[in-house]
Each structure stands twice: as C-alpha cells, then as structure tokens.
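Records of this kind hold a single protein each, on a pair of labelled lines. Below, a sample record shows both lines together.
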Amino acid sequence: MRWRGERQSDNIEDRRGMSGGGKLAVGGGLGAILALVIGLLMGKDPMALIGDFMSNGVTQQQTNETTYYNPNDPQDTTAQLLSVVLASTEDVWSEIFSQAGASYSVPKLVFFRGTTPTACGQGHEAMGPFYCPADRKAYIDLSFCDELRERFKAPGEAAIAYVVAHEIGHHVQNLLGTSDKVQSLRGRVSEREYNRYSVALELQADFYAGLWANRAQAKRNLFNSGDLEAALRAANAIGDDKLQMEAQGYVVPDAFTHGTSQQRMEWFMKGFKTGDINQGNTFQALGLTR
C-alpha cells in the first residue's frame, strides 16, 4: 500500500502502555480465555462473549501510566498504517454522509495489549479486532496483525486495512441505526433466525470495507497491484466455515454469524466494484427484512 506520507488520524487512543494491560486476575481466567477463543472460532457474538468473559472474573489491573502514540516513531509502522487507514475512512465516510445531507461522527481507534475495559465490557486480545457501539470505539491489539499473517496466512498491509475498515463499517451501521435494529431482535426470534441477521450485518460491514477501498483508491491511489488480493485473502481466512472447520473439524451453517469465506469475499468485492452504498443491502439479499 502507498500509505506513507498520508494524513494520520487524530482519533487514536493508545492504551498499550497501561500497566498490567495483559494481566488476568485469578478466578476462572484461563477457562474463560479458552471458552472465549472457542466461541469466537465457532462464530459467537463478540459482545455476548465479552459479557461471558466478565462474568468469569477476568479483570484488568490498571494505573494511569500510558504510552502515547508517536506518529513519527520508525519502530511503530503498523500503528501508523492503521492511523492512516482510519484517517482515510474519516475522509470517505464524511463525504458519503455529507452527500446524503448528514454529518459523520468519527470513531476512535483504540490500541491495547492483552485486555482493556470498554463500554461493552472487558475486551481481550483473543477476540481479535472489534467495535463497541456503546462507546463508538474500535479496538485492536496490534498482535492480531501478526496473527493475521502467521495463523490466517493473510499477509500484507491491505489485509490489515481491510480488517480496520470492516470495524469502521460497524460504526457506520451504528450511526445509521442498523445495528440497533438487529440487536432489538435478540430474544424475539429464534437463535437460528438471529444468526441470519448477524450474518447480514457482518457481510454489510464487509461491503462497507470494499466501498471504502473503492473511494480511497479513487481519492488517494492507496493500493498497489496485489493489495486487493491481500484484502481478499483476509476476508477468505475468517469466514465462519473455515473457522469452524479449524476449531471442530466440521461446519454448522445454522451457527454462522459472520458468513462464509465466499460470501465475505463477494460482498467486499461488490463494495469495491460499485462504490455505491445503495448496493449494500445484505439483508434483502439474504431474504431478510431490516
């Protein structure tokens, strides 16, 4: 990606220096971590898992000590890349909202290590990157970038950019009220039916990530040859079918909450090819109402 020299976002919250950021209190901590990892691999709802994690007595010991993000530190290039991607999403979504006669409220991107408190409960590195609608912040432990390359076999800066753009897609859904509408169905429909809505929500975030890539390329020419393939490898690597097969050796389609690898790639590409937010009604495409 051609990101060096591009604007970096001011909306970075760096918690990597918080004392005890990776320490877990005794009281079911290890078991909770294992349950969390298995749950995520099987496509469970991240926000529900945060609640489960909290109830198992996992806490974070903190002080006011913190590390402040330095946009010029030559040793912190991954954080700088993420800051550039965040800035680009700010530009793209501000323009899209403005064209619709609305104002885009920018989110924060939080860097952390190990665990961190959120308005949705306690976040943990095992969850991977996630978005909390209650505080309008996206969270990422930067070690996930290594995991993306090593475990998921999805190397490249564009793969990391796709993941961040997907989480910002959830922020857009939060602003548009889409997330609330889906959340309101919890307990009112069967688990199987709710999972279908969850899949539609995740695929739409993939579409929004592709839409961002389309606009970012047109605006700033961020992507080199091969970058799109890197983003697609990331989308392919984290499909429900692949993660379930890895975790248990078979797939349970009714338990899908994020979509198959093929679906995730298709919706990212649809966003990238069209650049049109009106083409991203994944709910209608899956035969659901929103």
Summary: The radius of gyration is 18 Å. The chain has a mean pLDDT of 86. The longest helix spans residues 191-220.
